[in-house]
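Journal club side-thread
Mid-discussion, someone asked how the predicted structure for our own chain would compare to the paper's figures. Pasting it here so we can look after the session.
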Amino acid sequence: MNGKAGSVSRRGVAGNEDALSTAVEPAAEEGRADAAYRFLRNAILSNELPAGFQAAENEIAARLGMSRTPVHEAMARLQEEGFVQILPRKGILVKALSPADLLEIYDVLIALEGAAAERLAGGHVADVASVLDELAARTADMEAALRDGDLERWAQDDEAFHDTLVARCGNGRIRRMAATVTGQSHRARRLTLHLRPLPLGSAAEHRAIIDAIRSGDAAAAGTAARSHRSHARDQLVPILDRLKFATL
């Protein structure tokens, strides 16, 4: 996690030869593309494929046990979401994130999640009660994980909360726009998970969002959602600056 990460090639990343060794064999070609996308995305999020990792398309396909077509589709999706850069005739390069990138990503998330919360509170979604139940369940899971000292599980439950907020707000464009940046924010937060103070106030901020949506107060819901993401940004970016991480 430093300024030199982008120069590391596939052959120079110790231990990452095995990161693509799991075969993925869904029945349909469309299912293969989805499986390849999920596998590669998860490997990037978990830093099994770190910034600077590079591999050819045919090599990835061989290691996943599938043809190049679904791998190419998966790579295109990952490039659209900012995870990788497709290099002509060379395959993919996992892109690094800088503090400046994260500031831009959080600007987008703050706006989109605020709008999503406002829509949920404003009566634009028919099954808002089930959305609230899911948001509350994810928040309770976060608290349980934190009590157990399991930060990895906490992070997964926290991500599920935010993903649910935008995915079920009733606006497909908000959902699709958020999908292009949420993965990158998840990646940065996972990489710095053990560098930040314990997230003791996060569940309370989630509940403020839930309560505002339940009360039908769109303005309060939007404000609570934007404030929550702003707090996360204001905590994360200074840590990167202080530790002199040029890239993640």
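Post-session note: Residues 1-15 have pLDDT under 50 and may be disordered.
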